[in-house]
Amino acid sequence: MARARLVISDTSSEEVDQLRRTVNTLVLMLETAEASLTAGASAADVLNAWAATARTGTDDNSEAIANIVDTGRELVGMKPTPKHPRRRRGSLRDMVADDDF
């Protein structure tokens, strides 16, 4: 079974979370490669299954290659957005003393 090191998650970030999911999926795919080879798949079959995973975004043996063990997990890259998306300028209005600012 693949191993994981316990670390303190000291950052609340969608970017870090996605990187963690991607790395963990890749580790599990490496582990299932051994299971696939043991089941009788060739190394070329494993690489073809991985190529299909990169194309489709899910490690689910979408091409139904014999003896391939899949993780069923999503595998996607990332395209970060700007940290602070541009905001539309608000319209101006008159301030009143009892407004709640």
Could you please describe the fold and organization of this structure?
The chain is 40% helix and 0% strand. The protein has 101 residues and is mainly α. The chain is elongated, with a radius of gyration of 23 Å. The termini are far apart.
Give me the secondary-structure topology.
Elements: H1 14-39, H2 43-56
Can you give the mean pLDDT? 87
**Biggest sheet features:** none
Query: Helix count, per DSSP?
Result: 2
**What is the H-and-E element order?**
HH
Rounded radius of gyration (Å): 23 Å
Indicate the percent of residues in helices.
25-40%
Distance from N terminus to C terminus (CA atoms, Å) equals 56 Å
- Name the assembly state: single chain
Q: What proportion of the residues form beta strands (DSSP E)? A: under 5%
Number of strands: 0
Structural class designation? mainly alpha
Q: Which stretches of 5+ consecutive residues score pLDDT under 50?
A: none
Principal-axes shape call: elongated
In short:
This protein is mainly α. Helix content is 40%, strand content 0%. The protein is built from 2 helices and no strands.
Characteristics:
101 residues; mainly alpha
